[in-house]
């Protein structure tokens, strides 16, 4: 599904410290490629499969972000896509948008001592595959959103007319690209679960697994 930017629960529950930070220089809320590489982001075993699966599922066009949650075997648990509004790149705002989408599609893992699920971000944009300040803001936002949702921060992937690129890893390919037509692709997914009890969390899991 595709969602636009809208006032999120993350934004409405922001602390005064968050609001103060939001008024500061947005350039402080981005990660340089060297910082991202030093953060110990786990490598995807099969990035082409992940990218092709998300492209087939969401059919992104430029300015579309796709956040996906993978289990330890890199099977898709949940994903959501949304369109970025035209505005200056700001990691704080990107964090709020990503966190809102994660809260919509999958329960948090904050009770775990160590995260076992990983969130990855695929962003379709104009331009070439070289790092931009906008990419740095998405990296900052993804890392912060994962911390607040109890997830491991995974790969950040750009999708342009030249193809896809996993930033910080040097891996990429020509297809799919921002101009590609989505093709049927069997991305590995967790089998549907039969909830033992009712409740909101069980209903969310049931609906996510059915997608």
UniProtKB/TrEMBL annotation:
<feature type="region of interest" description="Disordered">
    <location>
        <begin position="168"/>
        <end position="198"/>
    </location>
</feature>
<protein>
    <submittedName>
        <fullName>Uncharacterized protein</fullName>
    </submittedName>
</protein>
């Amino acid at each position: 599904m595709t969602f636009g930017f809208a006032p999120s629960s993350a934004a409405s529950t922001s602390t005064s410290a968050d609001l103060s930070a939001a008024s500061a220089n947005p350039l402080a809320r981005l990660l340089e490629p060297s910082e991202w590489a030093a953060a110990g982001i786990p490598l995807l075993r099969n990035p082409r499969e992940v990218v092709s699966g998300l492209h087939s599922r969401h059919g992104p066009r430029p300015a579309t972000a796709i956040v996906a949650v993978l289990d330890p075997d890199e099977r898709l648990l949940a994903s959501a896509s949304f369109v970025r509004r035209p505005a200056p790149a700001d990691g704080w705002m990107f964090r709020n948008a990503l966190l809102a989408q994660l809260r919509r599609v999958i329960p948090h893992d904050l009770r775990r001592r160590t995260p076992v699920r990983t969130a990855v971000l695929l962003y379709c944009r104009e331009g070439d595959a070289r790092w931009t300040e906008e990419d740095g803001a998405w990296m900052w936002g993804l890392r912060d959103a994962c911390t607040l949702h109890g997830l491991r921060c995974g790969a950040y992937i750009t999708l342009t007319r030249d193809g896809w690129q996993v930033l910080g890893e040097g891996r990429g390919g020509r297809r799919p690209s921002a101009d590609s037509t989505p093709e049927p692709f069997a991305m590995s997914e967790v089998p549907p679960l039969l909830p033992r009890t009712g409740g909101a969390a069980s209903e969310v899991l049931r609906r996510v697994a059915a997608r």
